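Input/output pair, single chain:
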Amino acid sequence: MARPPPLGELPPGYTPPARSAAPQILAGSLQAPLWLRAYFQGLLFSLGCGIQRHCGKVLFLGLLAFGALALGLRVAIIETDLEQLWVEAGSRVSQELQYTKEKLGEEAAYTSQMLIQTPRQEGENVLTPEALGLHLQAALTASKVQVSLYGKSWDLNKICYKSGVPLIENGMIERMIEKLFPCVILTPLDCFWEGAKLQGGSAYLPGRPDIQWTNLDPEQLLEELGPFASLEGFRELLDKAQVGQAYVGRPCLHPDDLHCPSSAPNHHSRQAPNVAQELSGGCHGFSHKFMHWQEELLLGGMARDPQGQLLRAEALQSTFLLMSPRQLYEHFRGDYQTHDIGWSEEQAGTVLQAWQRRFVQLAQEALPGNASQQIHAFSSTTLDDILHAFSEVSAARVVGGYLLMLAYACVTMLRWDCAQSQGAVGLAGVLLVALAVASGLGLCALLGIAFNAATTQVLPFLALGIGVDDIFLLAHAFTEAPPGTPLQVRPRPPAWAHLRQCCVGAQSLLV
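Output:
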């Protein structure tokens, strides 16, 4: 092995620097860096000579190691969780998220499904009974979604997020509340009686038609049941929540509807409500005290008069809240409906994902193509599907890119003179780069490093460009040297090429 030069002595073949640097070298300010450069060049040259003497063994062992590491791609994990992708581990945001989960618990978690309605004609006002009627049509279609999995049927009433069913001493009332307790749906329709149509569930009492939110008047029901049961605790609960008459005391969007209750303010006048006035200040769920949906959660593109009164809006939004997989699992654990299917949290997540995909599909198809409004449905599963689609490796794209680079390297380095032709060098170089990229990613997978969209879509082509560039630099340096020139004095790649390589390498580290 070549001996590194002693300090203060430069190698014989060292190229002197420019004259402007000579005074600094004589003063000693650049002597140590130059010695370090010469030292490492000597070590690398000795390593290269050793590899050259045992080229067959090195090539065999290298290909064997690269191929073994490339097999690690079989256990690669692609990360699509937004929290894991964008929140740095150990950061302030990560600590606050962990604190929130610990204090609020899993019960505070839910998933949101959004239904957004916009006019086809830009700038058109959506605060009209007709536009809200179309929104009701789309929301009704979405709320009726059912999926069949594991031999069971799953609808919104089974998987939606509910704020918590109260405990009532009276068993009959408790069972009725359990069946009727509404899902949490943030919608502009809650300002009107039609908001009750989105709530599923029904209860039966002797001598009465099926009780649903469209015909349920809690105050009247308490008066009818008062002589038969003690309901003071239940009455106090309703008064604290300010339930009142629930939905039957709100105006009807379409007073001509045969089911519009007589208690609606516009039932007798048959006058369509002023939608902007009703939505001003937001809407309430069945509880006026605990369920207040602000305007910003329901409307978009709002315009107001100088006094701050709502005049118009360009978008309507309804949000359906579903339980988290953990909540759904706990809710049905031990239930007779799931005792025969080996119920697990993974199955609960599969049910929620299937329902959300069906929700998006049916909601977007709810309105006819010639309608004046258009519906945009979005769910958390939709975002996950998009991230999965962008993170999947396109084999055709990667193979096509490497084949194009292979053809380019072979053609540009090919010469009519066989002694000067380096087409085989370009071919072998591109193949070696491809194997190096695969083995590097395989090693990362074996170390447990998760991949993301940048890893699968950007890194293979970035590494290809960096690796092939080195092949051209080496081929150019050897081409410039006359035949028979000793290795020690062959010209090296120019300094600007090394600078460019450093910049490209820094970019790859950032990716």
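The radius of gyration is 36 Å. The chain has two domains: 59-107+393-479, 109-389.
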